[in-house]
């Protein structure tokens, strides 16, 4: 039976966030809803779920994060029984073994709570629950955004394999055009609550008509792919890959010697990688002129020059004109008196010197800023103050921030995502809050537990 909805719309507080939309999907169909954040794709997804369920269709939903589906205080066995009962089944009657085998779920102890399972296994478990009873349609809302790339790809491969040959249709909601390209036959591209483009996936990728589709087809922000750095015969970076969206914040955490500062040097072009690609919006990263905030504030300045002369160096070096009032606005945001810039580095406090360093990094309005241990030289009170100012100025300026730090508390509080390096390799990448609650690897759990014992991270994490 073809599933169809007609004229779905939604208005909130007098504002139309979803314009009238109609769509249909055949049994075994694979449809992608793609668009940037805020385009209305999840709103459409929830609206069609409600409409189809009202029609009597069986529709399952997989949310963006397993945290939205799993109660941390309940066992995995409880969640499974609850899903069976919700579908009118006798507890224990669903083919748990078959679903677990198909999705390669290492069940472990079903008596454990969600945090006792790895992040990838949690998400596969949620997908397995959604497939109980063979629904007419499964809607996946950004199902891999909370997973690292390897786990994400494996999870989607297993789901696609399981659905092959079954009548269950699938709608994939995502901002990742590459993910959609490999998983769906038809695409709907959304922008500002409207479907602006629709058609076969191959056609939309080869000949995107709408600007929204063309924008999705371009890599956004900072992308590092398979980066290998060597000093002599020793690999200092071993296959590093990361993505940092425009205006996003990635905190890179690890102990001394993990490769954090080496990664920054490679992005700045100070270290030529043996292999790998570093881009900003798909172009070589040097075109973005990434800025750097150094670890030691006073050492970052020429001691013989005034702070003002040093701060204005990026403007002179790039041959650009400083926008009227920009210096004053940035100084106000960083709580730096203008007359303080006429002093030399030794004549200001270390906290003021660090804020002047941030000012210099931002003066030419770079799209991406690299922070190398920006708080480590500061006392606790000044650290907190400076961290707040960095966050406020980033919100105002809209730059992407890559923050290298050994302070897990700071990383969790101010990063959107956390990437842990160990011996030049990526040990784990996760959403910051997810990482604080349930890091996957033993090494990362040790880091998290050490931060809690030192008081750098709340015990609730």
Structure description:
The chain is α/β, with parallel strands linked by helices and 461 residues long. It has helices at residues 41-54, 76-86, 96-102, 119-131, 149-163, 177-183, 201-206, 211-216, 260-268, 307-311, 313-318, 326-333, 350-362, 380-397, 408-414, 432-437, 442-453, and strands spanning 3-12, 15-25, 30-34, 59-62, 137-141, 169-174, 186-191, 194-200, 222-231, 234-244, 249-253, 275-280, 283-284, 291-293, 368-372, 400-405, 417-422, 425-431. Strands 4-5-6-3-7-8 form a six-stranded mixed β-sheet, with helices on both faces. The chain has a six-stranded mixed β-sheet with strand order 14-15-16-11-17-18, sandwiched between helices. It has a four-stranded antiparallel β-sheet with strand order 10-9-12-13, with helices on one face.
How many structural domains does the protein architecture include? 2
Widest sheet: strand order? Answer: 4-5-6-3-7-8
In CATH, the homologous superfamily of the largest domain goes by the name P-loop containing nucleotide triphosphate hydrolases
Radius of gyration: 25 Å
N→C terminal distance? 46 Å
Unreliable stretches covering 5 or more consecutive residues: none
- CA-based shape: globular
Number of helices: 17
What is the percent of helical residues?
25-40%
CATH topology of the largest domain: Rossmann fold
Structural class: alpha/beta
Secondary structure: number of strands: 18
CATH class of the largest domain, please? Alpha Beta
């Amino acid at each position: 039976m073809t599933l169809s909805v007609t004229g779905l719309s939604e208005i909130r507080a007098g504002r139309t966030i979803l314009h009238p939309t109609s769509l249909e999907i055949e049994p075994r169909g694979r449809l992608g809803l793609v668009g940037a954040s805020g385009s209305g794709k999840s709103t459409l997804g929830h609206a069609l779920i409600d409409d189809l369920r009202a029609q009597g269709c069986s529709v399952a939903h997989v949310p963006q994060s397993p945290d939205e589906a799993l109660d941390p205080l309940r066992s995995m066995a409880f969640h499974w029984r609850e899903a069976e009962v919700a579908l009118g089944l006798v507890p224990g009657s669903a083919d748990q073994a078959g679903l677990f085998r198909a999705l390669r779920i290492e069940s472990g102890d079903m008596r454990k709570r969600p945090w006792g399972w790895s992040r990838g296994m949690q998400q596969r478990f949620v997908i397995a629950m959604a497939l109980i009873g063979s629904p007419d349609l499964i809607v996946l809302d950004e199902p891999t955004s909370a997973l690292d790339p390897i786990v994400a790809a494996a999870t989607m491969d297993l789901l696609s394999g399981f659905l092959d040959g079954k009548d269950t249709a699938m709608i994939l909601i995502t901002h990742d055009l590459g993910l959609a390209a490999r998983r769906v036959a038809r695409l709907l591209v959304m922008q500002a609550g409207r479907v602006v483009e629709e058609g076969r996936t191959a056609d939309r990728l080869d000949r995107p008509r709408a600007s929204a589709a063309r924008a999705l087809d371009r890599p956004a922000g900072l992308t590092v792919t398979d980066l290998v750095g060597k000093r002599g015969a020793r690999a200092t970076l071993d296959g590093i890959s990361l993505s940092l969206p425009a205006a996003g914040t990635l905190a890179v955490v690890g102990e001394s010697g993990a490769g954090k500062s080496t990664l920054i040097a490679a992005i700045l072009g100070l270290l030529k990688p043996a292999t790998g690609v570093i881009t900003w919006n798909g172009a070589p990263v040097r075109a973005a002129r990434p800025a750097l905030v150094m670890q030691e504030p006073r050492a970052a300045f020429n001691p013989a020059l005034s702070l003002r002369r040093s701060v204005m160096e990026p403007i002179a070096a790039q041959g650009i004109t400083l926008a009227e009032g920009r210096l004053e606005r940035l100084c106000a945001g960083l709580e730096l008196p203008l007359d303080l810039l006429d002093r030399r580095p030794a004549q200001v406090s270390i906290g003021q010197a660090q804020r002047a360093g941030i000012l210099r990094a931002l003066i030419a309005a770079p799209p991406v800023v690299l922070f190398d241990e920006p708080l480590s030289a500061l006392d606790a009170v000044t650290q907190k103050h400076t961290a707040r100012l960095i966050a406020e100025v980033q919100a105002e300026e809209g730059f992407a921030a890559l923050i290298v730090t050994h302070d897990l508390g700071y990383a969790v509080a101010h990063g959107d995502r956390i990437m842990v390096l160990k011996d030049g390799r990526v040990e784990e990448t996760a959403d910051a809050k997810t990482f604080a609650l349930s890091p996957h690897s033993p090494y990362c759990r040790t880091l998290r537990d050490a931060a809690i014992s030192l008081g750098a991270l709340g015990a609730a994490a």
